[in-house]
Design goal:
Rossmann fold, 15 strands
């Protein structure tokens, strides 16, 4: 039963500010990412573990695959990350590091075209950061640390071409950092209920990796021209969820000062009984119990990944729930993670952090990977919604048809079944003690005949200023470049001073629960006051009555 779903806003609300025209404003530099020369004749940078040397492209220094913690294979498997022992001489930092072993994804042709993924190469020793910076000799620039999506079971810092930080670093005079960490059962296997004190931190090892990466940033980023006292976390999908998890980790306090949560406003983490059940199912697939659990540190990582896939399926079958309901995730263990992030209230120290929070318009676009769904009718939409909305299905569908009269049935399904409610809830709770800015990304891609609409992840190439690099998602149009310049400038302004306002956007007010001020990022950017309030109320009432 979906209890915390939301919806993507329609554009039909009243605009509080005049929209900016679609054409480029005089201040927008659309040539900021023209190709330029590359040089490996660059100065080394001293880190706490040793010197590293990267390369320079278009005036930006790039360092890839820098270890931020000790290896996590063998006897270190399932343990917290340790300090890297260091190296002698100068280490090459020219290429990305290994990706945590994980289940394969992206087997759909349409998704592969849109996202243009790079699965990298697997390696259990995967704790690496990548850095883009305008200078390694001077300055104390804002630091933007990117946390990738992919659930807690997949993904990497370079899985998508949109994640490249060169253009964002150049446009905003900021230092961009991205992180690889443990995912899946290597990062979140709750062995506490099975092995007691033998693996006390296995359930949250992947989150402890992120704390170690932020500690590395605090200790080293000054050598890369960054300001360790001005760190903004930004992440999309599970990357946003990871940010929320970090806000309740005592070990993360003081390691970042601002946050941007994109399509990742999950309010809760895993309960111990949930994650322990998945651990038991996974270990059962390996035929291990009792003292045999020590073999978990000897088996090949690939065997563990396969067992994790089978364990998820086993548990879903046992509980008679969809596979999507059984996920790897952090555990509220009372120690590393004492509580849920935003349920029932805001986190303590992190409740004072300035935040940008938002979603895309068609997060779960049903026809994204299956074009045949474009032809479904309202009866088919109602049939899909009825298991969750019950007797209220027709009333909800009517409310959305009334608010969006031009929308196709498949689009109505996307509008109803999206996570906007969680974003609004998080924004409202965070806004009690901190400045919060809410957005809705409504620009719709022209590729694949426009079928994907404003799908989950479409905002990535815009805020990274990589729309040409991600032509499969954006069409590499002039319109996309203009919006990318505006959106990335807002993210940059927020990193600099905790406020996304800049001259090429309409004034973006803080979010207040009473007004719901929301920046609509589209061909014509504008601020609207809670434009989907009426239909959202109908949906939320239906969920309450059915729950």
């Amino acid at each position: 039963m979906m209890k915390r779903r939301g919806l993507a806003m329609g554009i039909g609300g009243t605009a509080a500010m005049a929209a900016l025209p679609a054409e480029a404003a005089p201040g927008l530099d659309l040539q900021a990412h023209m190709p330029g020369p590359l040089s490996t004749d660059t100065p080394p940078v001293e880190t706490r573990s040793g010197k590293v040397r990267g390369y320079r492209r278009n005036g930006i220094h790039v360092f890839k695959g820098i270890p931020y913690a000790a290896p996590t294979s063998g006897q270190a498997r399932f343990g917290p990350p340790g300090r890297h022992p260091g190296w002698s001489g100068t280490r090459s930092a020219l290429a990305y590091g290994p990706v945590c072993p994980q289940a394969p994804r992206w087997r759909n042709d349409y998704l592969a075209f849109l996202f243009d993924w790079n699965e990298g190469y697997p390696g259990e020793d995967c704790l690496f950061v990548n850095v883009w910076t305008p200078s390694v000799t001077e300055g104390r620039r804002p630091v933007m640390v990117w946390l990738h999506g992919g659930g807690f079971y997949a993904g990497s810092s370079y899985e998508l071409p949109s994640y490249d930080g060169e253009h964002l670093s150049r446009r905003g005079d900021v230092v961009v950092v991205s992180v690889n960490h443990r995912v899946g059962l290597l990062g979140y296997l709750n062995l506490g209920a099975l092995a007691g004190d033998a693996y006390p931190h296995a359930a949250n090892a992947g989150m402890l990796d992120l704390v170690a990466a932020l500690d590395w940033v605090k200790s080293n980023i000054g050598q890369f021209g960054g300001d360790p006292g001005n760190v903004t976390l930004f992440g999309q999908s599970a990357g946003g969820w990871k940010i929320n998890a970090l806000t309740v980790m005592p070990a993360a306090e003081g390691l970042f000062q601002k946050a941007i949560v994109q399509s990742g406003s999950r309010l809760r983490l895993g309960e111990p009984e949930q994650t322990a059940a998945l651990a038991r199912a996974t270990v059962a697939e390996l035929g291990l119990e009792g003292a045999d659990l020590a073999r978990l540190q000897e088996l090949p990582a690939s065997a563990l990944v396969d067992a994790g896939i089978a364990g998820r399926k086993r548990l879903a079958d046992e509980q008679d729930v969809p596979l999507s309901a059984v996920q790897w995730q952090p555990t509220v263990d009372g120690d590393v993670i004492p509580t849920h992030p935003y349920d029932p209230e805001t986190p303590g120290w992190a409740g004072r952090l300035p935040m940008i929070i938002g979603t895309t318009k068609h997060e779960r676009s049903p026809s994204l990977a299956d074009p045949s769904l474009e032809a479904i009718d309202l009866a088919a939409v109602a049939e899909r919604l009825r298991p969750e909305l019950g007797e209220q299905t027709d009333q909800v569908l009517h409310a959305y048809r009334l608010a969006h009269p031009q929308a196709a049935p498949v689009e109505l399904l996307a509008l109803i079944n999206s996570p906007r409610t969680d974003a609004i809830t998080q924004a409202g709770r965070q806004a009690q003690d901190a400045p919060v800015y809410l957005y809705w990304f409504a620009w719709e891609t022209p590729v694949l005949d426009g079928r994907p609409r404003a799908f989950h992840g479409l905002d990535l190439p815009f805020m990274f200023d990589n729309t040409d690099r991600c032509a499969g998602m954006t069409g590499a149009t002039e319109e996309a470049r203009i919006l990318a310049a505006r959106m990335s400038a807002a993210w940059i302004a927020f990193a600099h001073r905790g406020d996304p306002n800049h001259p090429d956007l309409p004034p973006w007010p803080r979010f207040e629960p009473g007004t719901g001020s929301t920046m609509v990022l589209a061909e014509r950017c504008a601020v609207a006051e809670d434009p989907d309030r009426e239909e959202r109320k109908v949906l939320e009432a239906a969920l309450e009555s059915d729950g």
